[in-house]
Design a protein that fits this description.
Blueprint lengths: L1 E3 L1 H6 L3 H14 L7 E5 L7 E10 L3 E9 L12 E9 L5 E6 H20 L6 E5 L3 H13 L4 E5 L3 H13 L4 E3 L10 E4 L18 E4 L12 H6 L1 E4 L2 H7 L1 H8 L12 H6 L12 E4 L4 H13 L2
Parallel strand pairs: 1-6, 7-8, 7-10, 8-9, 10-11, 11-13, 12-13
Antiparallel strand pairs: 2-3, 3-4, 4-5, 5-6
Helix pairs in contact: 2-3, 2-10, 3-4, 3-10
């Protein structure tokens, strides 16, 4: 069995190839039940989570990601809030083939899925990106978006100003046009991407400019959210998967519970976009919203790409 550490996993998942691998699996499909989530008691936080995400393609590959989400780790230097591994096996005989760094798989496939969706939903000439969050996923989002759009400005906001400054400095060192944002307001930005563990809204519909594309990556539980109901109601809504969005996406679940929208507000999902059954953005002024909660098929596609890359 091949063991891939963080560096090797990342090297085998370049952005263009990874985005295309995700597009292919959304077009072709695979078996991927809704993830199993189990609460984990925490000494210094309300609750952690154990997530199990299986997926398989008959006779080809099976895979499962095991994820520990421990928010209290954010308060301890050197510890990550999310830790995971990915096991890829032979789909016919069950032989283990590779064990990959699951956090790297997650970060990169999450960012790649956002950019895949943005290719359908954001304006092609988008130049200004606002990032909410300063962790590894936010870093990956900045890299991935810069490969797809002609970005001239990337602004980083975080509740921890020092973290936002460190990420902006790192992105600048990589040659990206990054700086710290004064606030979380989305006004004037072409693309707004949020990757936080927020449980209260950070983005509000009243502040959203016409033509903006919003990419909500956090809020993977129904009790979490990054936007208010007015923002969701003002946008054309596209989750990564319709079933996952309605079951797990706090931004959607809570907006429905408040009466801001109903299930019919969902225009299409990423399957529809990749299969060409919905065109995505239909006008320059349209406000669009992509809400991801993560689909196990994305992890499988990434793991297969990493394993098959020479």
């Amino acid at each position: 069995m091949r063991l891939m550490d963080r560096a090797e996993t990342a090297a085998r998942l370049p952005w263009p190839a990874l985005i295309e691998a995700l597009a292919a699996i959304f077009r072709d499909g695979c078996a991927a039940p809704l993830r199993h989530r189990h609460p984990l008691p925490q000494n210094e936080a309300k609750e952690g989570s154990l997530l199990l995400m299986p997926a398989w393609q008959a006779h080809r590959y099976t895979g499962v990601k095991i994820v520990h989400v421990t928010p209290a780790n954010a308060n301890t230097p050197g510890l990550q809030a999310v830790n995971s591994v990915y096991l890829l096996s032979h789909g016919e005989n069950g032989q283990p083939l590779a064990l990959l760094d699951g956090s790297t798989v997650t970060d990169r496939r999450t960012a790649a899925a956002s950019v895949l969706a943005a290719g359908y939903l954001a304006r092609p000439d988008s130049e200004r990106l606002l990032l909410l969050g300063s962790g590894k996923v936010a870093h990956a989002l900045a890299e991935a978006y810069s490969t797809r759009f002609p970005l001239k400005e990337i602004r980083v906001w975080s509740r921890r100003a020092d973290s936002a400054r460190r990420l902006a400095d790192r992105l600048r060192d990589e040659g990206l046009p990054a700086a710290v944002a004064d606030s979380a307001s989305p006004a004037g930005f072409d693309i707004v991407s949020a990757a936080t563990l927020a449980t209260e809204p950070l983005l509000f519909g009243a502040d959203l400019s016409p033509g903006t594309h919003v990419d909500l990556v956090g809020a993977f539980r129904p009790d979490m959210r990054e936007s208010d109901g007015a923002l969701v109601a003002s946008c054309s809504l596209f989750p990564d998967t319709r079933a996952g969005g309605l079951a797990e996406a706090g931004d959607i679940v809570q907006a429905i519970g408040e009466g801001a929208i109903d299930e019919n507000h969902i225009v299409a999902d990423l399957f529809d976009l990749c299969r060409g059954t919905h065109p995505g953005r239909t006008s320059k002024e349209e406000k669009t919203l992509f809400k991801s909660v993560g689909w196990a098929g994305e992890d499988l596609a990434a793991a297969v790409l990493a394993y098959e890359t020479p």
